[in-house]
Fold this sequence. Notes:
Helix content: 40-55%
Strand content: 5-15%
Radius of gyration: 18 Å
Number of helices: 5
Mean pLDDT: 91
Number of domains: 2
Shape: globular
Oligomer: single chain
Low-confidence stretches: none
Number of strands: 2
Amino acid sequence: xxxxxxxxxxxxxxxxxxxxxxxxxxxxxxxxxxxxxxxxxxxxxxxxxxxxxxxxxxxxxxxxxxxxxxxxxxxxxxxxxxxxxxxxxxxxxxxxxxxxxxxxxxxxxxxxxxxxxxx
Length: 119
């Protein structure tokens, strides 16, 4: 069976130079000279006033759920094909994880399936 990766990294020499510079400076897990410019440019790109860089996707998911007011009395629908951090973030805020099948051609949840679940 042929292996088909979900994603493949694309890393340029410029990106390697930036990472090397960040590691050489000692600022790899807290604010360094790249964080503020990145947040500003990303907010501008998204058309928002603010953006917040996080250390990893789990933290980003947790902050998103908290900012939306997701808590113990709520349920959160997630795709059944996802990284464990998706469900862990939901559990961390105390909400109930509800998994749904994905569509094989898009690897995403069918919005109609969500509507059907809610009715």
